[in-house]
Amino acid sequence: MRDEDEQAKRFDRLVLGIQLGMLQDDLLVVETAASAGAEIASALLEQTNIPAIAAQLELLDEVSGDQWWMNVTLQMLELLRLRCWSCYVGGSEPW
What we know:
Elements: H1 3-23, H2 27-45, H3 51-54, H4 57-63, H5 66-70, H6 74-88
Helix pairs in contact: 1-2, 1-6, 2-4
């Protein structure tokens, strides 16, 4: 398995964990994972020379801030997961 594939799968698990935490009303899980998600988005913003990351610049900028996470929904998380998959596959490790 390529390293990029592993990073993409780890990102998937993180976002799916947040979604599950939301469904189970587990605020601690949601807050902890959301903090990690914002850090990952910030790290990706430092690699805008990678076309897949540059294509998601607006979304990543929003996700790196607290406001996005305060209003996040399951649908927003799924969109994040789907749109950012390409940031890992064929990209470099952001953290």
